[in-house]
Amino acid sequence: MATPGPVSAGAARRTRMLARRLTESRPAMLGLLLVLVVAVSAAGAPLLAPYSPYEQDIRARLKPPGWRGPDGGIRLLGTDGLGRDVLSRIMYGARVSLLVALATVPISLLLGVTLGITAGYAGGQVDRVIMRLVDIQLAIPFILLTLAVIAVLGPSLPNLILTLGITGWLTYARVIRAETMSIRRLEYVMAARALGATSWRIVTRHIAPNVLSSVVVLATLQVPGIVIGEASLSFLGLGVQPPNPTWGGMLSEGRQYVWTAWWLVTFPGLALTLAVLGVNLLGDWMRDMFDPRLRRQLGSKW
Q1: Terminal CA-to-CA distance of the chain, rounded, Å?
Q2: By the 8 A CB rule, do 178 and 130 touch?
Q3: Rounded CA separation 278/224 (Å)
């Protein structure tokens, strides 16, 4: 029977230490709990939602939280202007936010990391061209750029994912470029180049693994921005179209009832706030854990 090698043993030790430090951090545990609630609500919406998010009942419109219908069912978070259950729509809206985030991050990550490593390793004219593209896109306000792209392509879920993906690569490119420029000057990289290693081997074996921690942290911190961006575009009517429930769309529909049916904006807004807060708390913890300065402080224990 084979025994685990030093690499697997070291990975297991680091995993246990990460788990222990996660349990020791109350903000991180709160963030993890909030993220799990959103994920479970989104994945289990067809089973957990008490009503259909599309079923309309004009007789039950604008009922307050806790209202009991003629069928004996309780609308825990009330109903909207068309008599649809608010809780069910919030749960199905979480699916849209989660889907957009999971589909957008890989697009931004792949584009940004590729261009960042290319600019940092190649340098010269290639670096200047890529960085000028970054500067040009940064000069255009995010919401203005997304509005222009959505207006041209049309409002739909695929177009929303594509738009958020191609506008979110800038941070990856700038951070990864800086790290690549630092790594390529290290002795082991210069030694590999002197021994005849190809650029592809140097990038894949020496540079990419060393920027992986930064990529993970950036991806985690990008998710809240994507969730808010999707909600903003849906609020403006340029995201996922009705009758599909989205948190931004629910806020837009409920704004005309702010003074008469407060629950229509309060509960979707609260769901959006808690989801973003959870990812931010978890992302802050991950940033601290992957910080090279913290690893040096931990020394041999890490």
Answers
A1: 28
A2: no
A3: 9
Which of 90-99, 208-217, 223-232, 268-277 shows the lowest per-residue confidence on average (mean pLDDT)? 208-217
C-beta separation of 228 from 239 below 8 A: no
Residue 218: pLDDT band with limits 50, 70, 90: confident
What pLDDT score does 9 carry? 61
Helix and strand totals (H; E) in the chain: 14, 2
* Residue 287 · residue 263 · CB < 8 Å: no
Copy the structure tokens of residue 137: 């896109």
**Do residues 184 and 211 lie in contact, with contact meaning Cβ atoms separated by under 8 Å?**
no
Tally the C-alpha atoms within 13 A of residue 5's C-alpha that lie toward its C-beta. 1
Residues with Cβ within 8 Å of 241's Cβ and at least 6 positions away in sequence, in order, are: 155, 156
Q: Position of tokens 């809206």?
A: 93
Give the pTM.
0.82
Question: pLDDT at residue 297 above 50?
Answer: no
Tell me the torsion sign for CA atoms 177, 181, 187, 192. positive
Residues across the chain: 302
Which CATH class name applies to 26-55+79-292?
A: mainly alpha
Of 77, 40, 79, 45, the closest CA to residue 275 belongs to 40
For residue 127, the number of C-alpha atoms closer than 13 Å in the C-beta half-sphere is: 13
Q: Which two three-digit tokens encode residue 262? A: 């407060």
- 230 within 8 A of 246, measured Cβ to Cβ: yes
β partners of residue 68:
74
Is 257:10 a contact under the CB 8 Å cutoff?
no
**Sequence ranges of the domains in the chain:** 26-55+79-292
